[in-house]
Amino acid sequence: MVNRKELDPEESPKAKFGQRLRMLREGQGWTQDDLSERMGYSATHISAVETGRRSPTTRFSHSADKALGTGEQLERQGRAVRNTALLEGFPEFVKHESQAVEIRLFELGIIPGLLQTPEYAAAIARGAVRRGAITEQQAEERLTLLARRQAAIDRTPAPMTHVVLDESCIRRPVGGSTTMTAQLDRLSEFAEQPNTVFQVAPFDLGERRAFDLPVTLVALADRSHISYAESAQQGRLERDMRFVQPMLTAYHQLQAESLSQAESVAMINRLRKGTP
């Protein structure tokens, strides 16, 4: 089939739904046009769902189940897609992150996922559940994905990883003193690795801080770059160098303005000892 997009069901719940829909359709020997006639949706719409470019609505899933004779299988799977705790664009970004030769990230407020201890990550997830922001199932989804991400970059050769943390990340207590002490120890260990650069952007950087939202920049083996930035409700993956290049420039400026690695580690050591 010309221009057939291969699907990775592990990429996201949406991709998994698309692969399942395609498999069921092809199992009937139907084209997208054939299914379109039976569902009342355009073939273009069905194609977008199958390739993960569009999420399946409740009505779409119900109609697909009816046309394919699958009971409520797709309707249940569609609910999992809509109830995921992952932001749009993030699952695709994670795939690129696992293949990166260089990672540059900036975070504020909390320690970034790649550097979190299991206890710190669990405390963050529990907090989100208590606030009603996510369900326990979604919290488990986040923790499982985080473990996969951390394992993916713990490889040989390891990616060169640059980390700049806003000072708020290391001063905000999470999970109690024992959890926070272990997390600060983890940061010190990270800074000692030969493939890492670790810096803190101090509070007195003020208006010179380059970013107001978490940002990750990834370089791939083919020398292409992508960026991923997110707010509380939305994630954005960007490949166009017209937009990625200014973010790279801003990141370099942020590194120049931040504390050196030695100064950053010294700040962490002071916090571990309970001194300002």
Anisotropy-based shape? elongated
Q: How many domain modules?
A: 2
Strand order of the largest sheet: 3-2-1-4-5-6
Please state the CA-atom Rg, rounded to the nearest Å. Answer: 22 Å
CATH topology of the largest domain: Endonuclease, Chain A
Number of helices: 12
Biggest sheet character: 6 strands, mixed
CATH class of the largest domain: Alpha Beta
Measured as a percent range, the helix fraction is 40-55%
**What's the architecture of the largest domain in CATH terms?**
2-Layer Sandwich
Q: Approximately how much beta-strand content do the residues carry?
A: 5-15%
- How many angstroms does the end-to-end distance come to? 64 Å
SSE-based structural type: alpha/beta
The pLDDT mean sits at 88
The sequence of SSEs as H and E is: HHHHHHEHHEHHEEEEHH
- Uncertain regions: pLDDT < 50 for 5+ in a row? none
Beta strand count:
6
